[in-house]
UniProtKB/TrEMBL annotation:
<dbReference type="GO" id="GO:0005743">
    <property type="term" value="C:mitochondrial inner membrane"/>
</dbReference>
<dbReference type="GO" id="GO:0045277">
    <property type="term" value="C:respiratory chain complex IV"/>
</dbReference>
<protein>
    <submittedName>
        <fullName>Uncharacterized protein</fullName>
    </submittedName>
</protein>
<keyword id="KW-0999">Mitochondrion inner membrane</keyword>
<keyword id="KW-1133">Transmembrane helix</keyword>
<dbReference type="GO" id="GO:0006123">
    <property type="term" value="P:mitochondrial electron transport, cytochrome c to oxygen"/>
</dbReference>
<feature type="transmembrane region" description="Helical">
    <location>
        <begin position="41"/>
        <end position="60"/>
    </location>
</feature>
<dbReference type="Pfam" id="PF02285">
    <property type="entry name" value="COX8"/>
</dbReference>
<keyword id="KW-0812">Transmembrane</keyword>
<dbReference type="InterPro" id="IPR003205">
    <property type="entry name" value="Cyt_c_oxidase_su8"/>
</dbReference>
<keyword id="KW-0809">Transit peptide</keyword>
<dbReference type="InterPro" id="IPR036548">
    <property type="entry name" value="Cyt_c_oxidase_su8_sf"/>
</dbReference>
<keyword id="KW-0472">Membrane</keyword>
<comment type="pathway">
    <text>Energy metabolism; oxidative phosphorylation.</text>
</comment>
<keyword id="KW-0496">Mitochondrion</keyword>
<comment type="similarity">
    <text>Belongs to the cytochrome c oxidase VIII family.</text>
</comment>
């Protein structure tokens, strides 16, 4: 750990000042219409099902492959 810290402080590995001084500003326009609670809940539920659905299927069927090897 100390070797790594010494290497960072040495002249061979100078810190890049540009990485610390760069700033990115994200700007955008406001929405044309207000997003309601129903739309927010629908989108969050859809994304959750889209991500957790396949993961649940894989986990539920992973034990089947171990049983078939016998």
């Amino acid at each position: 750990m100390f070797v790594f810290a010494r290497a960072l402080r040495s002249k061979r590995f100078p810190l890049r000042q540009q990485a610390f001084t760069q700033r990115f500003y994200i700007t955008s326009k406001s929405a044309k219409s207000n997003v309601g609670v129903v739309e927010s809940v629908f989108v969050m539920a859809f994304i959750s099902i889209a991500i957790l659905g396949p993961a649940g299927w894989i986990l539920s069927n992973s034990s089947d492959s171990h049983r078939k090897k016998k």
